[in-house]
Design a protein that fits this description.
heterodimer; A: ten-stranded antiparallel beta sheet; 50% helix; B: six-stranded mixed beta sheet; 3 helices
């Protein structure tokens, strides 16, 4: 199976995202059930991050508004996939960055820009007044609604809204929009100063996603609850695949890869919490690739490389025989499958597993594993 | 013996271990810790092995099965194989329509045991 990307790329993506406590990005079609799953995944992640209920409520509200913006403009489509909706959320030391991206008609740009600039320019007192005005306007006309959403996002986030328009063609531009929810512990002014290029960060991630045919990126703690959230979301994404075997392969392989991180990932010394990892879904024309990256102690790298090489070169019958052998082994010391997971992936995909180790420091390396499911 | 009845959930299967019914484990099985989840099931079957029914029907129907769960299911099947030496065990290995991977998994699991497996696509 030929890869359209080199494996080292994912280590660098992991490294880029490791500055953030949590990152989730999705590019593609947004259905109602998918947005529901995105919301619950982030809710779970915020639980894991032990956020205050005030922060959780704010972030949740802003996510709902952002996702609605995307679905509302989804009908604006051009053939190319670059025109699909984009959503991302990153947790920095200062707060949560919620970004949406969608096409807008060029004729609407000026009105939108004015609306945002106007809201951004108001002080607290003026905001309250404007809010009242908008509320009564909203009662009178449907139009008031959109501006009200923006205003609420600004009020809830406590920070100015950032945005950008990227030229697409004669009719459309791509509209990036970001709200920044400061964590309670951080002064608003500081966070505004510290996050000057946060929109650029999200745009960079979006560009990487488009370049590599990526659908989903998740970087964070791989505890069981986050795994369940990711699975629910992916199940929703693959629900349209008619072939049962294929659909189940994607989910089963994903379970093995994610539980692998959950059980085995090593962490940096000062790291608290469950295995930090990166999970990426990339969709090619004839193949779906599931990618994970996590830290592994340098002393373990040779074993895993040898093992994957061994099973990659096995015929299907040998794979089955080894599977049975490991199943029969009564190894009480081993907490989990004892090598079964990778074998399972090899068996179900019937493709070679791609593996790469990239150096990180004296103790740890990045472990990249890619499973390919052919259509 | 108190029966074990567990309702199916997102990551755990439905379990019915009750003298008066067919035994059954079905649904999705990828719990956080498969050892922990299957430990009471295995203990229960060890007790059952002391005074089993003349004939026991056991249905397995997995929608999803993680490898760490498969390891536990193998343990269950090896226990059943012991019982089968004196008291007949019938395993019904059901799988979703088109899920040939789950069929193959059943075929791997039956290789080491003498129990009769009936395969059925449902």
């Amino acid at each position: 199976m030929e890869l359209s990307f080199d494996l080292a790329f994912f280590s660098s993506l992991f490294n880029k995202l490791d500055d953030y406590q949590l990152s989730y990005a999705y590019s593609g079609e947004f259905t109602d059930s998918l947005t529901g799953h995105i919301l619950s995944l982030v809710e779970t992640s915020m639980e894991v991050e032990s956020e205050t209920s005030k922060t959780k409520k704010k972030v949740y509200y802003i996510m709902v508004e952002s996702l609605q913006n995307i679905t509302r403009h989804q009908s604006n489509t051009i053939d190319s996939k670059t025109k699909e909706g984009f959503f991302s959320i990153h947790k920095t030391k200062l707060g949560y960055l919620v970004t949406s991206g969608n096409l807008v008609k060029k004729s609407n740009i000026e009105a939108l820009r004015e609306k945002i600039e106007k809201i951004n320019s108001l002080n607290q007192e003026e905001l309250r007044e404007y809010h009242k005005e908008m509320l009564s306007a909203a009662e009178l006309s449907e139009k008031g609604g959109a501006g009200l959403g923006l205003l609420e996002m600004l009020r809830k986030s406590g920070n100015k809204l950032t945005y950008d328009f990227i030229d697409v063609n004669e009719t459309f531009s791509y509209f990036y929009f970001q709200a920044n929810v400061a964590l309670n512990t951080v002064e608003t002014e500081d966070s505004a100063r510290g996050n000057e290029n946060t929109l650029l960060l999200a745009q960079n991630i979006h560009n990487i996603i488009l370049e590599h045919n990526i659908k989903t990126v998740f970087h964070g703690q791989f505890g069981h609850d986050n795994i369940k959230g990711l699975l629910a979301m992916t199940e929703c994404n693959v629900a349209t695949i008619q072939n049962t075997k294929l659909r189940k392969s994607v989910i089963s392989v994903m379970i093995e890869l994610l539980q692998n991180i959950c059980y085995h990932a090593d962490g940096k010394k000062d790291y608290e919490g469950e295995g930090p990892g990166l999970f990426v879904i990339s969709e090619g024309q004839n193949c779906m690739s599931l990618i994970t990256v996590n830290y592994i102690e340098n002393s373990k790298t040779k074993n895993i490389l040898d093992y994957v090489e061994k099973i990659n070169n096995m015929e299907d019958e040998k794979v089955k025989a080894l599977y049975l052998e490991i199943l029969m082994k009564d190894d009480v010391d081993r907490k989990h499958g004892g090598g079964l997971g990778l074998l399972d992936i090899r068996h179900k995909t019937n493709n070679k597993i791609d593996i790469a180790i990239e150096p990180f420091n004296e103790e740890l390396s990045y472990l990249n594993i890619v499973a390919h499911i052919s259509f | 013996m108190e029966p074990i009845i567990i309702e199916a959930s997102f990551d755990k299967p439905k379990v019915v271990l009750n003298h008066t019914q067919q035994f059954e484990i079905s649904g999705r099985s990828f719990p956080e810790n498969a050892n922990l989840f299957y430990a009471p099931i295995i203990s229960w079957l060890k007790m059952y092995a002391e005074t089993p029914s003349l004939e026991t029907n056991f249905i397995f129907h997995f929608e999803l099965l993680s490898s760490s769960s498969t390891k536990q299911i193998m343990k269950v099947i090896l226990l059943l194989d012991e019982i089968n030496k004196n008291h007949k065990i019938n395993i019904f290995w059901h799988y979703d329509i088109g899920d040939t991977d789950m069929l193959k998994m059943g075929e791997i699991l039956r290789k080491e045991v003498a129990i009769s497996f009936s395969f059925k696509e449902i």
